[in-house]
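Explain this protein:
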Amino acid sequence: MEIAIARVATEVFSPAVVVLVLPMTVAWHATGHVGLTLLWGLEVALFSSVLPMLFIIRGARAGRWDGHHVREREHRTVPLLVGLASTAVGVAILVLADAPRDVLALSAAMIATLAVCIAVTRFWKISLHAAVSGGAVAMVTLLYGPWSLLLLAPLALVCWSRVVLGDHTAAQVVAGAITGPLVGGVVFLLAG
């Protein structure tokens, strides 16, 4: 039962899923308008989640890595660099389209966090699940206030799931959970 719960938590709070929801949350705060929230949120989600995930799934199906979570550290660099490049293209479009400042700040925070995770991943398998979820908690809390700290519960759940499934050590999830807010949260705060 524990493994089943861990698998569900790993999928529900995966970076790809969090980066589908987080841009909508930030865009709503920035615009307060359903149409604009969808416009900006979907643009960020497309370039920072959907396109990178399609690349990862295609690579997994071709046997380049072991699955959509790319569990082997040595194989993570290429998918992460593709995600970074895709997010950068998305940012360029946001700049040209005069996107709201908070949406740009979110994209800058994601680029910064991803760049740090890529650097760390060269020698150690930091948890991207924890980094993305931790950064999301920080950014949502900065926008919506202290009640958002209730999101620490899903962050703890996803960290636990990564350790239970044997994909990370406790140190790797703690490092990710700290990196997300320290890098992503700080960049979001400074750029917003």
